[in-house]
Automatic annotation (TrEMBL):
<dbReference type="Pfam" id="PF02798">
    <property type="entry name" value="GST_N"/>
</dbReference>
<feature type="domain" description="GST N-terminal">
    <location>
        <begin position="8"/>
        <end position="87"/>
    </location>
</feature>
<protein>
    <submittedName>
        <fullName>Glutathione S-transferase family protein</fullName>
    </submittedName>
</protein>
<dbReference type="InterPro" id="IPR036249">
    <property type="entry name" value="Thioredoxin-like_sf"/>
</dbReference>
<keyword id="KW-0808">Transferase</keyword>
<dbReference type="GO" id="GO:0016740">
    <property type="term" value="F:transferase activity"/>
</dbReference>
<dbReference type="InterPro" id="IPR040079">
    <property type="entry name" value="Glutathione_S-Trfase"/>
</dbReference>
<dbReference type="InterPro" id="IPR004045">
    <property type="entry name" value="Glutathione_S-Trfase_N"/>
</dbReference>
<dbReference type="InterPro" id="IPR036282">
    <property type="entry name" value="Glutathione-S-Trfase_C_sf"/>
</dbReference>
Length: 194
């Protein structure tokens, strides 16, 4: 049985992969784990049956046998711990990759969602400095990069990335990964078939 990921039946972003199921599907693509989709309308998400999977009636959810998870970060963390490919084998390296997962979701994503431009710019410049000209945040590509790029992509189309060229190149590098492209293709196919 393959894991099941819930996705919008009719994605409001028009299939550009900005919803939080994208990071989960991207992680599954990175580790080459096939999966199935649970297509949800907004009214499906309000139903009591769905509340048994997700107490807040949101997406994504992840079902694998008798394991049910919600919160995209927890799901990516589970995938990264379950399948090889998204976390380094050394214990300290792994903890630093997890640290970057938290940094993406706890430090950067809230700045983006809150729309506080000054604070966000400060954080972006700090991140730009830390990344420098490195390919990824800490050694090889990890779940930390996957979540950081998932969050930074939300700024595409705004001009805030304009003076952080290292971050722009970092996002482009991650988006060029075959696993990202496969996940994005599925987003656009879902939107087309809606
Ligand atoms: N912190 C949650 C946020 C989940 C979330 O906000 N999901 C959005 C889609 S990207 C959603 O379900 N929106 C509809 C709603 O909140 O009713 C996560 O990372 O999974």
């Amino acid at each position: 049985m393959y894991p099941i990921v819930s996705v919008f039946k009719n994605p409001p972003d028009g299939g550009r992969g900005y919803h939080r199921d994208m990071r989960v599907r991207w992680a599954l693509e990175e580790v080459h784990q096939p999966y199935r989709l649970r297509l949800l309308s907004f009214s499906d998400m309000r139903r009591p049956q769905y509340r048994q999977l997700h107490p807040f009636g949101q997406m994504p959810t992840y079902e694998d046998g008798d394991l049910v998870l919600f919160e995209s970060g927890a799901i990516v963390h589970h995938i990264a711990y379950t399948y090889p490919g998204l976390l380094p084998p050394d214990a300290h390296d792994r903890s630093r990759a997890v640290m970057w997962m938290f940094a993406a979701l706890n430090t950067i994503e809230p700045c983006i969602s809150s729309g506080s431009a000054g604070y966000l710019l400060q954080r972006l410049h700090e991140l730009e400095r830390v990344l420098g000209h490195d390919e990824w945040l800490d050694g090889g590509f990890s779940a930390g990069d996957l979540l950081m790029v998932s969050v930074l992509r939300l700024l595409r189309g705004s001009d805030v990335l304009g003076d952080t060229p290292n971050l722009e190149a970092y996002i482009a590098r991650a988006e060029a990964r075959p696993a990202f492209q496969r996940a994005l293709k599925m987003s656009s196919e879902l939107a087309r078939s809606a």
